[in-house]
């Protein structure tokens, strides 16, 4: 009903929804890129899906999730499939997985430290303006 009286509202609502979805997609892509950087830094091997058969196999795997697998020779492997961005799979052993976990924790700590520093800046007396005064 409101949309009939205000056609611009419908357009603005659609634009806002599109922008929100695009923002979420960008955040997911950034998260994937960050994970892949950590995997590479931890020593995971990057294997490209450079044939149609490999790409089909890659697409059938669970995407953008670290998965524990047992190799045919009985060794434990960890894989991370990315069929959309890099069209590759990251493969690591237990040592690489442990390094990845350490790096991920270190990154979380660094982010928490940055957030705490920003909070501290906001808590300083000069950060408050007229809005901080009591009512």
Concise account of the structure shown:
By secondary structure, the chain is α+β, with helices and mostly antiparallel strands. The chain has helices at residues 2-5, 7-41, 52-60, 94-123, and strands at residues 45-48, 66-70, 76-82, 88-92.
What features would you describe in this structure?
The protein has a 4-stranded antiparallel β-sheet, sandwiched between helices. Helix 2 (7-41) crosses helix 4 (94-123). By secondary structure, it is an alpha+beta fold. It starts with a helix and ends in a 12-residue tail after the last helix. The protein is flat. The longest helix has 35 residues, at 7-41. The chain contains 4 helices and 4 strands. It is 58% helix and 16% strand. Residues 22-30 have low confidence and may be disordered. It has one domain.
What's the end-to-end separation, in Å?
Answer: 40 Å
Q: Helix amount, in percent?
A: 55-70%
Q: Based on DSSP secondary structure assignment, what is the total number of beta strands?
A: 4
Proportion of beta-strand residues = 15-25%
Average of per-residue pLDDT values: 80
Structurally, the number of domains stands at 1
Total helix count?
Answer: 4
Tell me the structural class.
Answer: alpha+beta
Query: Uncertain spans, ≥5 residues at pLDDT below 50?
Result: 22-30
Shape: flat
Main beta-sheet strand count, sense and barrel state: 4 strands, antiparallel
Radius of gyration: 23 Å
Order of helices and strands: HHEHEEEH
The spatial strand order of the largest sheet comes to 1-4-3-2
